[in-house]
Amino acid sequence: xxxxxxxxxxxxxxxxxxxxxxxxxxxxxxxxxxxxxxxxxxxxxxxxxxxxxxxxxxxxxxxxxxxxxxxxxxxxxxxxxxxxxxxxxxxxxx
Length: 94
What we know:
Layout: H1 4-15, H2 29-33, H3 35-40, E1 41-47, E2 50-55, H4 58-66, H5 68-78, E3 86-91
Parallel strand pairs: 2-3
Antiparallel strand pairs: 1-2
């Protein structure tokens, strides 16, 4: 399954419109959380000062909670305007 960002890039490429790369917490999650965490989690929502993340196993919830301070630091260094102070992690259903 392709990511929405990849589909948009393909669309703009086909239309001959240069797509400006815009970094978001969603698109930078791998860099923010680290490859291993990012492969097993995904950002599902950002509201006010909280980021919601979905994990595919309870163990990843624990790992994110253990690394919460570093992840928040990474987010706020890259996106200081967001002022994220909390990470809520839920288990993926199904």
